[in-house]
Write the structure tokens for this entry.
Amino acid sequence: MRRAAVLMGILPVLAATPEPLFRMPSGLTVVLRPEPVRPLVRLTLRVDLPSDLAEADLQLLGAAMARGGAGPFPAQVLARQMAVEGHAWAFGVRGRTLVWSVLADSQDQEGAAELLAHQVLRPDLVEGWQRLQAEGKDRSGRQVFRALRAQDPAHWVLPEGGTLLRLLALGRSLLRPERASLTLQGDVTAAQARQLALLQFGTWRPGDPDPLPDPAPRMAGARVLVAPGPEGRVLRVALRPISGPEGLQAASKALLTFRLRGLFLAGDDGLVHQRVLEGGENHLKALQALLAELDRRLARAPGTTDLHALEAARAAERLRQGLEPARALEALPDALSPDQMPPLLDPAALRSRLVVLLEGAGPEDQAALANLGLGPVQPFNR
């Protein structure tokens, strides 16, 4: 059973996306990708969320689901159960899609499907909420900064104004079978796939969305983190693309990577700038120069070169999709006109998505940084 953990992610990907095996009365779509070469089965369940879902609501739901248990298992017990069974599992958010994935030996596929069903149908959002609140009391600046460079909701923070009532309503409204698809890939037959889907997900029922209670949560704006000390003088800045449906979010990242080349490096979920300051350089002046250059590069009207950059990113994405099945979720839109690009390159909106970390900054730097209008200056807890 330990082979599942070792071989996570190496199941071959079929060149063409297969037709759905069947669609359950609830609306859940079941897809089969048979590959009997290895005695492994991957079960992947995706739930597509509304394209107009507020980013703060997405962060609230994703962060809680990444921390809570499921079914009869608290979070720590669930993790141990997965390890004991030899299953490799993951939960993530890709654009506006929640994704759960479990890889197991084919002989353990029923147990893996049961644990997956617990996570999707019976998530313990209350435990997730409680753990989010506890983390909020002592979350370090390093974790906040890292969260902008990872797609792992386990690093996300509680959005401002998020409430348990709204979290529960989001879960009831969005975790619906008519929005979901279940893919079974590997050493599994059509008959086994049907049986697993009906046995574990047959009780999942569609329904009308719950009204979301007010107030709505809010995403924090730009953040400035300061780490005094003699360890070194470094300016680090993380920038997330404009939020939106996955295709547009991927387009925003591709455009920013092109426009800001040489200034920012592309990370997993955004762009990162890092600069070690020389002896006489000032944190404030270095940050002001970076922001001015950021605004200058974003001010140019979209044109042919941006379209070429998107096409190059699209070609690179097609190559990667042949190696990673999950990458298909990140596909860029087939067509994007220059008229659709300005919101993805809006300097004011992007400034609100910055996290600035200044290491080795002194008290005089902190006082000056507060006047930049990027947001509150907070101590960086190592």
In short: The first helix runs from residue 3 to 6. Residues 111 and 303 are 53 Å apart (CA to CA). The chain is about 40% helix and 20% strand. The longest strand covers residues 40-48.
